[in-house]
């Protein structure tokens, strides 16, 4: 039930308010998808916004690779 309530409030695949304790390792996000707008932004949200800017400009190369929040926070993408 918590998960359903979560998606009623935020439609991003990775959300800073996700009730699942392991969401940073288990939830996948693809470049170009929605980004959670919950403030204050966490590092994964900032990285997603940067990637989406590159996607809009046609300069992001790995469009078919999904990322977890932890990958976004810890890898140089």
């Amino acid at each position: 039930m918590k998960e359903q309530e979560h998606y009623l409030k935020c439609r991003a695949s990775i959300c800073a308010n996700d009730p699942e304790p392991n969401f940073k390792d288990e939830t996948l996000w693809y470049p170009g998808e929605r980004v959670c707008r919950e403030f204050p932004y966490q590092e994964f949200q900032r990285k997603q916004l940067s990637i989406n800017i590159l996607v809009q400009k046609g300069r992001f190369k790995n469009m078919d690779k999904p990322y977890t929040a932890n990958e976004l926070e810890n890898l140089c993408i």
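The radius of gyration is 12 Å. The chain has one domain: 2-74.
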